[in-house]
Amino acid sequence: MTDTYYLAAFIAISAAATFATRVVPFLFFERHTEHPLLQHIGRFLPAAVMALLAIVFLQRSANWSASLPGLDAILPGLLVVAVHLWRRNALLSIAVGTVAYMAIQQSGWLA
Amino acid sequence: MNQNVFRLTLPILFGYIPLGMAFGVLFTTQLDYAWWIAPLMGLVIYAGSGQILAVSLLAANAGLLEVAVAMFVLNARHLFYGLSLLGRFRGAGWRKGYLIFGLTDETYSLLTSRPLSSDKHHEQEVDFRITAFNQAYWIAGCGIGALLGEMVAFDSTGIEFALVALFIVLTIEQIKALGDSFPLWAGAFAAGISMVLVGPSHQLILAIAIVTGILLIQYRQLKNRLPAAEASHD
Which of A61, A73, B54, B111 is packed most tightly, with the most Cβ within 10 A? Predict the structure, then answer.
């Protein structure tokens, strides 16, 4: 039962936090859209947050006690970068990287 | 009108069905919850990268404060979508709440790139239907993926890497759109510091605080260097 409570609270909080990011400008920023600090944060924060999320979760997917520490996640990560710079197709890049990581983990290569 | 809206949203259909399915498969193969929770999340949360992040937060039994902060900051880019649509949604009445709720990356790009007539009410009705069609594709994708993940037995070890791959792709897209790699180094620096200093449960919050601090310092420096700060915001 606590599991159900946790899930319900989790979904409610996720929904509220997501909606908050969408509704805040309509509630508070009607008069401040031109403020340069807001525009600066707006320009740079999204990219910086994506970069830090990519790195934190890449680090968590890696096996750092392998003989070649971290390579099991770094290699598929580099593959995603290469495929995306090459074809610039988001779904293709994600699929190729994920399949590569799954193959590495399931075969025990780089373990 | 619906036929026209369907044609407009067709590219989103081709994007949302597979991405929704990826989330659905991830959801049922990583977690023990009922499959229909996945489309339910598509209905009430409706955020692609947010829902995929939610799977790993659920798997880790993350604290609810961490969930709130991570979700808010991950979707913080939406803060700046609304800014350019303030006038567009003004006077949309009961539709306005849903237009705001459904403002995903894809809906935003579609709404801001389509030609408009002078009939504001008609255009708001079209915007509303575009938003609803897009969300319907997304919910369908989440549901199909979740059912597929439950029915088809396969070794899904490592499938959670889709989240990392998604973040890498989004980083590249953001940097390309920006034409400036500074945020990449700021984000990498903040991630590195927080991974050294604190345990997994607080890394995201600390890294986000550090990166915001770096941007504030950068803003002050730019402002001091250029008396006309606006010059750097063209």
Answer: B54
Residues of chain A with pLDDT under 70: 1-2, 30-34
Does the CA dihedral A61-A66-A68-A69 come out positive or negative?
positive
B171 domain-assigned: no
Amino acid found at B141: G
Contact state of B172 with A102 under an 8 Å Cβ cutoff: no
Please identify, among B163, B193, B219, the residue that sits at the C-terminal boundary of a domain. B163
Contact residues, A window 17-56, toward B, CB-based 8 Å cutoff: 17-26, 29-30, 33, 36-37, 39-56
| Domain of A84, in residue numbers | 53-111
Cross-chain Cβ contact B79/A25 below 8 Å = yes
Helices (H) then strands (E): counts for chain A? 4, 0
Same domain, B91 and B194: no
Where in the sequence is the domain holding B89, given as residue range(s)? 2-163
Q: Which residue on chain B is closest to A99 by alpha carbon?
A: B159
* Residue of B101, B172, B191 with shortest CB distance to A52: B191
pLDDT tens-digit series, residues B30-53: 999 999 999 999 999 999 889 999
Q: Are residues B135 and B37 in the same domain?
A: yes
User: Please, what is the Cα angle at A93 between B131 and B154, to 5 degrees?
Assistant: 90
**pLDDT per residue over B124-146, tens digit each?**
999 999 999 999 999 999 999 99
Size of interface A-B (CB pairs under 8 A): 255
- Do B51 and B92 belong together in one domain? yes
- Rounded to an integer, what distance in angstroms lies between the CA atom of residue A50 and that of residue B182? 13
pLDDT score for A5: 92
Please state the domain count of chain A.
Answer: 1
- Cα dihedral sign, B130-B131-B136-B138: positive
- B37 chain-A contacts, CB cut-off 8 A: 7, 11
Query: Are B184 and B126 in the same domain?
Result: no
Name the minimum distance, in Å, from the CA of A66 to any CA of chain B.
16
